[in-house]
Amino acid sequence: xxxxxxxxxxxxxxxxxxxxxxxxxxxxxxxxxxxxxxxxxxxxxxxxxxxxxxxxxxxxxxxxxxxxxxxxxxxxxxxxxxxxxxxxxxxxxxxxxxxxxxxxxxxxxxxxxxxxxxxxxxxxxxxxxxxxxxxxxxxxxxxxxxxxxxxxxxxxxxxxxxxxxxxxxxxxxxxxxxxxxxxxxxxxxxx
Length: 191
Fold this sequence. Notes:
Elements: E1 11-20, E2 25-32, E3 38-45, E4 49-54, E5 61-68, E6 73-77, E7 80-82, H1 89-101, E8 103-114, E9 125-135, E10 148-152, H2 154-162, H3 169-180
Parallel strand pairs: 4-9
Antiparallel strand pairs: 1-2, 2-3, 4-7, 5-6, 5-10, 8-9
């Protein structure tokens, strides 16, 4: 293992757009390394997203089950969605929570952000605890398939993770954080 510092300097020699879709852009970049050599990097550009860990007053968590076309199956997930152009994550998480689960949050608190696939994609996900929930109704977008809302206790979720029943990355990050630090994202006085 080297003890030297990793140089962060990279000069983009050429950026060739390959694809621009509704959600992502793809480019092939020629990049100059610190030693002067050139390498090719295929990069997916994504606007980022916001994820809610919706906590009911009794401590149970609200999740949604939805079909994911790329993998051909339904997954149990935390409510989440992509950021609209110039939209702060705090606004996005409130919108996505209500659209997907039907619940409105009285308050949110950011707990972390992470890069799900930094080897080829610049997407960053912002995870928020959502509490003081009020029930409402789902407002699914035209291209979203029906999502079922499911509610689980801390013990149930822990068991489901251990059995490999929850496999969505953002959901695992959010739930494992919640299981490890259940009170860290909530205010001390919630009266």
